[in-house]
Amino acid sequence: GAVVSQHPSWVICKSGTSVKIECRSLDFQATTMFWYRQFPKQSLMLMATSNEGSKATYEQGVEKDKFLINHASLTLSTLTVTSAHPEDSSFYICSASSGLGYTFGSGTRLTVV
Amino acid sequence: AQSVTQLGSHVSVSEGALVLLRCNYSSSVPPYLFWYVQYPNQGLQLLLKYTSAATLVKGINGFEAEFKKSETSFHLTKPSAHMSDAAEYFCAVTLGGGADGLTFGKGTHLIIQP
Q1: Out of A32, A101, A104, whose CB is closest to B43?
Q2: Residue A32 near chain B (CB below 8 Å)
Q3: What does the pLDDT read at residue A100?
Q4: How many other CB atoms sit within 10 Å of the CB of residue A3?
Q5: Residues A101, B105: C-beta atoms closer than 8 Å
Q6: Which of A36, A38, B12, B58 qualifies as a cystine partner to A91, CB 3.0-4.6 A?
Q7: What is the mean pLDDT of residues B57-78?
Q8: Cβ-nearest to B99 among A32, A91, A103
Q9: Which residues, in sequence order, are CB contacts of B91 under 8 Å at separation 6+?
């Protein structure tokens, strides 16, 4: 139980375009989902907390206009990287809290060229 | 605010030897503590978690960790290392028990020598 599916697993986009990443809880309802960013060989940094039906809460230093988060249902949260630039290239991982704790998606490798 | 310190960015042990990965936390209130493992280009897999029940927590794949409040530690151990244990290990803390995100340590890369 408690499976989180994240798509796509990798994406390459041109600078200036937008990319959407989906995070789905497959067998449970996730009122709260979290988005993390991980640079190569570094730890995960919490970007934002996504609550179903309300605005996301962003961590200090995270641009809310660049990283748009939507949590329209209890099983889906999306992260859209708008006007992507090479410095946005990173590994993005979503997580959902469930009775079993925190379950993580498999991550999305974003490369902006 | 809470924080996690993992001592040793790289730890190397021989196959069959004891694995010890260190984690110390800082928190103003009793925390929830977690250990995760990450393989290259993958998400995180939960090894074990401490949620204020038993201080010795047993996890998957033979790992266990002991919560020591007096030492503010939550070190991860495994009696006998396998080659498949080679990965990145993260200690994490939260105060919210599900409502708040996790604060991660910087990670420890475990290397298993044949």
Answers
A1: A104
A2: yes
A3: 65
A4: 13
A5: no
A6: A38
A7: 95
A8: A32
A9: B4, B6, B21, B23, B25, B33, B34, B35, B74, B76, B104, B105
